[in-house]
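FAQ: What does a multi-protein file look like?

Like this. Sequence, then tokens, then the next protein.
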Amino acid sequence: MDYLKYVMIVGLASLSVAAVCCASLWLMAPLILARARRNGGEPMDDFLPETPHREEAGGVTFNFTPEQGPALAGLLQNEGPEDIAIVLSHLPAEAGRAFFSALNAETRAKVLLSLATPRNVDMDLIRGMKAELENRLYGVVGSPAEAASFIAALPYKERKAILEKIVTADPDRGAELRAFFIFDEDLRAMPETDFKALAAAVTPQTMGGFLPALPEKLRIKIKDQYPGKLGLALEKAAPKGEQGPKEKEAALARFMELAEKLAAKGIIARPKPGAKTAGASAARNIWGIKCL
């Protein structure tokens, strides 16, 4: 009987020790995982003291996003490290890291040296820097690419019509927008190498469906690229019977969409831009940043 009591006492003691160990591991798990992350070379942000938001502390925060970091670096690439350090110091953490990463190595070192040196900076200057950067990033409205995105959303026929009006109103700007698109007349002027590349990329069965909708000169040039049996397959794939205007317009639009994709992949050449736009207006200079 004494022996059984001894075994029970030992067993209960072991269970108690095991329970204490499990509880300790459970409580220490976050610290163990954090240390494992640090040893694995991951960022140590969790171990750094949290910096209070500057606006909460009565300061100024440059409320830019991480995606805007490279753009900020481009705006400030010719500025002194002292000014760049001010911007870096007043950016949110994620945006600051993106901005800092976009700077070149030499500039980074100078900026960090400036940042490590305490100094007093006039708050009006900081507010002026923030306002100027916001003006540079948000003050510009519109671009050829933005306008082209709206033109691209139009049906093919309307796209051609509106670009003709733009070119008539402003030849230089119109030529810049025109370079974003390929029209059937551009394909007619393609060199022979591009026609061969087009035929090699599009099967006769697919091309045959577009054939009746293409302008005559373009249709003849494309048919020449499919000799022998390929030409027979091309004719066989062509729709039978007369197509109406709407059907032809839809087929031509699909063909031009295909041509755009081939140009985007570099299979055929895209038309070159026309005349460049006139020189920009004289630049003004505020806080050392050239502003148009």
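And here is the next protein:
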Amino acid sequence: MARYTINQVVMLTGIKAPTLRKWEERYGFLEAERTSTNIRYYSDDQLKKLLNIGLLTRNGYRISKIDKMSETEIHDIITNKLVGPTQENDITALMVCMLELDEYGFDRIIKQNIVNRGLLLTTLEIIYPLLGQIGILWGLDKVAPAQEHFVSNLIKKRFYVAIDLLPPPQPNAPALILFLPEGEYHEIGLLLAYYIAREKGCKVYYLGANVPLMNIPTLVDSHDMSGILTMIITPLGELQHQVLDELLAAIDLPLWISGNLNILKDDFEGKRVKIIENPYHFIECIEGLF
């Protein structure tokens, strides 16, 4: 069972520390645990409860009324009335679904957002902020790898479904190679690029994660390609830079790189690459191919 300090709970729920202390004094739904040195901490179950309570209070429910609600009543209100109206509501509800491994609830919220917002806005306004929250938990060592993989795979499933529903590209459409280099495994950003490229009418050769760079020239030589996109989050080592230089020397195509802009601008300054700053920039690059 994970333990959360009061500062960590404040960061994850948005509920201020004085408010938490006041609730603990006045109401029965919250009672922090104590260490041997009398320092407050909160359990996984208490964090999930506080995420839900924070969601209710942000939507006008008085804490005195929430105190009298059962867990079932709280769940029903959130599920039937609050999920959907605001971005913050949905991100909080998705966090709870992750902690509870609630596949049905998680999938329902993501699908509802895709219907209402489209896949691009759902990714930018819901999925990316959610992954940021999960990253906070990961950094605090408060989320299990199984929970992170659970969420990632549900999200990836939604991308594959959306891509499968797109019409096939025209035979003469521009063709792109999309891949993550060796050591890069987080595909959600690349899958968004896959969807965008297909939605704009491109052929896409999607290679996935952890692809050796020197495999790319062989594919370029055997097919008529219009461009290559990769994403880099972690800084490249000296050997990886050498391999990238060899790749650039072996191909005569636009090489687009996105990911961690803080390292990209330093690592690739002066090289024959184009830094893609955001999905809308990528759309501009694709439209230039037609």
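Q: Is there any per-entry metadata?
A: Some entries carry free-text notes. For the entry above: The two ends are 54 Å apart (CA to CA).
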